[in-house]
Amino acid sequence: MFKPVAMVAGCALTASLAFNAAAVTELTIATVNNGHMIEMQKFSKEFEKENPDIKLNWVTLEEGVLRQRVTTDITTKGGQFDIMTIGMYETPIWGKRGWLKEISDDANYDADDLLPAMRAGLSVDDKMYAVPFYGESSMLMYRKDLVEKAGMTIEDHPTWGHVRDVAEAIHDPDNGVYGICLRGKPGWGDNTAFITTMANSFGARWFDENWKPQLNTPAWEHAVSFYADLLANFGPPGSSSNSFNEILALFNEGKCGMWIDATIAASFISNPEQSKVADKVAFAQAPVSVTKRGANWLWAWALGIPAGTQKAAEAERFVKWATSKEYIKLVAKNNGWANVPTGTRISTYETPEFLEAAVFANAELTAISSANPDNSTLLPSPYIGVQFAAIPEFQAIGIAAGQQFSAVVAGKQSVKKALESANKSADREMRKAGYY
Fold first, then answer.
1. Of 309, 339, 357, which residue constitutes the final position of a domain?
2. 229, part of any domain
């Protein structure tokens, strides 16, 4: 007689479990394998506790692979991801095309607390299409002990010529120390991004006012020759394959005397838990040549929501949590204020505990505030962007150029031939797109 009751109870339990399983929304997030993103994955367990109706699935990729995967997914409407880690290049282009969901503001999120440069770079017509997880510019990071030992100094805005002199003075490969480490791995957001800022300061530009590519000019040749010479004479072996993470590892091991790269690196190289030279680092603004314009880049790794996702509300709940003031405080509580994601919120730089803990704070904020995407070249140019031109065609153009630059560093290509080839590739893309 009691069997039917048990069966009813069992059915009810099964139904309840099925209902609960169905009520959980799974969000698939594509992200980059940078330190702060890895930490975000750890802390996101707190989000899942607060939001038991959401489960997070992470797809963590190397920077170049991430760019390819998310671009392919959104242009083909593949629907693989509910949240994408994207930047200041993709966001305005994709937002304008309707490929990203607008991120609404609310009192709790406080978008007015975002640094103006970050908010503007992720917006179209004052509408945000991604929110910054961390923001950055670029600056010079160096071993003050090695510089002092060599009897040299580094001013806040050193010239590239002086940087070369310092690199030569502190270069000591027999003892495992290289004068300078710079990105050499090909990619529009990798070596091309760095070399563009360098070329900007040498007076170069990607396009003239009629959108004609300008890579076969003396300014570009001077900049790329100077870059290749630095790495050939004072850089570590294998520089043509080095990106951010490879150089970070070298610097933390004490093998790099100087490094010009993302300001976000400062929080890692000054962390004694990660860096063997944490107490020996100092910072300066990016080197300049004939102009300061465009000498340091502007970027944000941001979280955007593809317009085609069926889980937009849940996705927005997560991206706002991960980029909130509360998230920054959560990281500070667990990891210390020196290790929070920076470059996004005004309130971070108004927090005494952060300013005391982060020796790089003022240099970082100065670099971010000085970058101007609307005026980044000495000669007039038709595009917006510092280390890139914010047009859809630039991704292919920058990748092709990066391969040529990397070949120069590897000793497989001359500077002149590399620039001629890059210019031809750019010309072909611009003609195909109908610019002229």
1. 357
2. yes
Domain around 214 = 137-297+383-432
Q: How far apart are CA 367 and CA 384, in angstroms?
A: 18
Query: Strand, helix or coil at 253?
Result: coil
Residue with tokens 């010239």: 159
CA distance 416 to 436: 25
In whole angstroms, what is the distance from residue 93 CA to residue 75 CA?
Answer: 12
pLDDT digits (tens, 9 = 90+) for 303-331: 999 999 999 999 999 999 999 999 999 99
Count CA atoms within 13 Å of residue 139 on its CB side. Answer: 30
| 434 and 211 Cβ atoms separated by less than 8 Å | no
Residue carrying the six token digits 């002149």: 416
Which tokens is 208 given? Answer: 């003239």
Q: What is the pLDDT of residues 83-98, one digit of tens each?
A: 999 999 999 999 999 9
Asked which of 357, 372, 399 is the last residue of a domain, the reply is 357
Beta-sheet pairing, 131-143 with 281-285: antiparallel
Cα separation of 166 and 146, whole Å? Answer: 9
H helical segments located in 24-159: 35-50, 63-75, 90-96, 116-121, 144-149
Q: Domain check: are 214 and 282 in the same one?
A: yes
**Greater pLDDT, 15 or 179:** 179
- The answer on 142 and 93 residing in a single domain is no
Give 230's strand partners.
none
- Structural domain includes residue 20: no
One-letter amino acid for residue 403 of the chain:
Q
Cα separation of 391 and 431, whole Å? 14
Tell me whether residue 176 is in a domain. yes
Whichever domain contains 89, its CATH number is 3.40.190.10
CB 284 within 8 A of CB 362: no
Tell me the whole-structure pTM to 2 decimals: 0.89
DSSP-derived letter for residue 435 is: -
